[in-house]
Design brief:
The protein has helices at 34-37, 69-78, 94-103, 158-173, 235-245, 261-269, and strands at 13-16, 26-30, 46-51, 79-88, 107-115, 131-138, 204-207, 218-220, 251-254, 272-277. With 282 residues, the chain is of the alpha/beta class. Bound molecules: S-adenosylmethionine (SAM).
Length: 282
């Protein structure tokens, strides 16, 4: 991919990390600090930044603080106007992340939740950790639409779809339903017909251990393999976020890439990606 500046300008190891013949589509800059690499990237070329930045919980040497305003400004420079910024965060440091992102000039538009059942309470005075907040922001500018259809939650079966149709038709007749704006014009005149691709995706994503029987929730098979990283995210989860927040054929930035689930997600979804991580290949 010809997006980053000359590899010689980047102190780190640049490698094509794609799979299945897509090696030109993913570039992984390893062993380089993103604060050095981001200024070398061209401005306003990335369609989205989806990343799992340090939480500032002191879990590792690189985790002493959340990235500051300067980092989010450098990321904003590389993003197109209106592009999404999606960042995983620690529960007790979310406010610091949100403050820095907002101060850098992003508009905070939402918060999603990644829920799991694998956490251990750090002490007897803590609850068992079972979720992480995901900050969703945008670069100011004309809004790039969310790819709702690409992220719809598939119907479990025909009965599930039919039940949604019955419930939504009843609600529509009661005049209380305002969520499915695309169908509002039809309300009252004909029965609600659920989208063939599935339900509208929600702000909750979870391992299938958490909620097996729910509706708008994206379920990820519980992952045991941590890909050698203390805070690895399942590629299926990253894939869902990429489908939702980056346009088809677009290019995604992940400046805190860790073990690199973004590489797999980008290839699987037909997006291009630039990944950066301070850790080297070994
Ligand atoms: C929360 S982990 C990401 C884990 C990743 N989601 C995965 O599934 O493997 C954050 C990563 O940011 C990297 N990191 C921390 N500070 C960095 C910096 N200034 N530049 C580039 N990478 C950095 C760390 O090496 C770590 O791998």
């Amino acid at each position: 991919m010809d997006l980053p500046a000359e590899p010689s300008e980047i102190s780190g190891e640049t490698s094509a990390a794609g799979a299945g013949g897509h090696t030109n589509d993913v570039e992984f800059v390893r062993g380089a600090d993103c604060r050095d690499v981001l200024p070398l990237l061209p401005a306003r070329v990335f369609d989205a930044c989806i990343t799992d930045a340090p939480y500032g919980l002191g879990m590792a040497a690189w985790d002493s603080d959340v990235p500051g305003v300067d980092v989010w400004r450098a990321i904003m420079r590389a993003l197109k106007p209106g592009a999404f910024l999606v960042v995983f965060s620690g529960r007790r440091t979310y406010h610091r992340l949100a403050g820095a992102v907002e101060q850098a000039g992003f508009r905070i538009v939402d918060q999603a939740i990644w829920a799991f059942c694998t956490g251990r309470p750090p002490s007897r005075s803590h609850l068992r950790p079972a979720h992480e907040p995901i900050l969703i922001a945008r670069v100011p500018g004309p809004a790039i639409p969310l790819n709702v259809d690409a992220g719809r939650i598939p119907w479990r079966d025909a009965e599930d779809q039919a039940r949604a149709s019955r419930i939504d038709s009843l609600r529509a007749q009661g005049g209380r339903r305002r969520v499915y704006s695309e169908s509002l014009a039809r309300y009252g005149r004909e029965p609600f017909r659920p989208n063939i691709k599935g339900r509208w995706p929600s702000t909750l994503m979870a391992t299938d251990q958490v909620l097996g029987e729910s509706s708008h929730i994206f379920l990820v098979p519980k992952v045991r393999d941590s890909a050698g990283h203390t805070c690895a995210k399942p590629a299926a989860l990253i894939e869902h976020l990429v489908r939702l927040f980056a346009p088809e054929g677009g290019v995604v930035l992940d400046p805190f890439a860790g073990s690199g689930p973004m590489a797999e997600a980008a290839v699987a979804t037909g997006r291009r990606a630039v990944l950066i991580d301070a850790a080297g290949t070994t």
